[in-house]
Amino acid sequence: MPAEFTGEQKLRIVLESIIRGVPKEEQCQKYGISPEQFQSWHDHLIKNGGKIYESKSSSKSRSPRVMKVKYVPWYVKLFLILSLFTNLAAAIVWGVWYLSVANGSEQRDLSLAGIISESSSDESEFERNSSSSVQENALGTNSELDELIAQVDGFEKGESGLGESSLRQDAPLVKGSEADLDSLLVAPLTLPNPPSSFALEHRVEFLDQSYEGKHVVYVVDVGAYQLKGPNAVQRLEEMKLAVLESLTKLSSNSYFNLVLCWNLRDAHALGKTILRANDENKRYATEWITSLGRTPALLKEGRNQFYPKELLYAQVLPGVIGPWYGLATAASYDPDIVFFLAGNMPDFSPDEVSRNDYNGLGINHSTDSLTSPQAAGVSEQFTSLVRKTAAYWLVALQSERNLPEDQEELEDIAMRRLSLDNMEPDLISRKFSIPWDKAFDNFLAGLEMGIAKIPQVHVFQTLSEHTKWPTDLQKTMAEFCDSTKGSFNQFPQ
């Protein structure tokens, strides 16, 4: 927004809103001004607008100066009568002379009065013409504004026609009592273009990037596996900081919600519906994020503070697990944008997952199969295969010169790199049996919206070094983000 609008620009902004019936909010959004600024300009026009029609100096009418005819006083006449009686002849001669002189003087006085009156009338007319010319010149200095004000006054009074001086030469004639509003508007001033951030409620800042949207949902993976691997605590703190920075920059006219998810089908949210980004709701979100501790115990304690999945509006279909469950919960709020800080969800701890979470995936986890000797033997063979595969992966990733020669020691290093060193054999087998492609199909089937209404999804993987999602999950997530015109990124380290 420019530092200051000129008087003409303020007047045009207010008049455009009055004549065209544009709501105050849209006018403020269009020109990048606050509602308080617009209201003060509007009140100033209503209060002081009439002063533009008042003359700065009212010209006083001048009455014509008429020279009064001087009549002969009575005592002079008496003297003449006495003189008449004294010298009748002389009085008659003097009287005749006096009368002739008096009549001539009266005619001259009356003629002079007429001349003066005519001259004064011409002078008044000249002054009126001069005053009108001065006013026209004054109007000419800012003719467009005065014409516009005159047109507004005439329109508000319901006049069916406007004078020629109040209409532009290129405006069409007004027919009947209905005037074409567009014809009454003069060409507006070319106002400076507002900056790109003039409508902050339609912009969201996240990780130094600007995104277009008014409704946003933040999804943060807070499973215990987020604290595994090198620099895990630092990475978690950076995730929390990224969300907090974006939250504080949200406009009060924007809307948001915060969803914390973990394991296969666990999630809590800040509220049942999307919330206005006012100071109170931002404070709740800030307190929730900062309460997430740096140990698994404190992390579990901090994440279980708001609405659990049983109380949320979203009813996610069975078989939607892991990252897809978090996205399904976020999509239920009907946002414009979803930011998902996703960790290594395939590394969930099976002992923290309910058996019901596997429903809809075609997995049979009966107790007998897990405890039978045959199942134990299969699990043992599978664990051995996993250890060998991990060792091959480590050798391919790193030069053999930097690795130990002992195979068992090599496998131990590889298992630690993959965060599998503390997993029991049966848990490892269950972990690698998740059909992530099936989970993605269930996710798409459960979306209660068309493709065009799916929010823009930006996923940021928060994985430790040398850790990746399973190929099926990695591929489907990248394709899904691309289909929503979003992005699939690695969280910046």
Please, could you describe this protein's structure?
With 493 residues, the chain is of the alpha/beta class. It folds into three domains: 87 residues, no CATH class; 64 residues; 220 residues, Rossmann fold. Helix content is 48%, strand content 10%. The strands form two sheets. Strands 3, 4, 5, 6, 7, 8, 9 and 10 form an eight-stranded mixed beta sheet that branches. It has a two-stranded antiparallel sheet with strand order 1-2. Strand 3, helix 8 and strand 4 form a beta-alpha-beta unit. Helix 4 runs antiparallel to helix 5, helix 8 packs antiparallel against helix 9 and helix 13 crosses helix 14. The radius of gyration is 46 Å and the shape is rod-shaped. The chain starts with 6 loop residues before the first helix and ends with a strand. About 12% of the residues have low confidence.
What are the SSEs and their pairings?
Elements: H1 7-20, H2 24-31, H3 35-48, H4 74-86, H5 88-141, H6 143-156, H7 181-184, E1 203-206, E2 209-212, E3 215-221, H8 232-248, E4 255-262, E5 266-269, E6 275-276, H9 279-290, H10 296-303, E7 307-308, H11 323-331, E8 337-342, H12 367-371, H13 373-397, H14 407-417, H15 425-431, H16 436-446, E9 456-461, H17 471-483, E10 487-490
Parallel strand pairs: 3-4, 3-8, 8-9, 9-10
Antiparallel strand pairs: 1-2, 4-5, 4-6, 5-7
Helix pairs in contact: 1-3, 4-5, 8-9, 13-14, 13-15
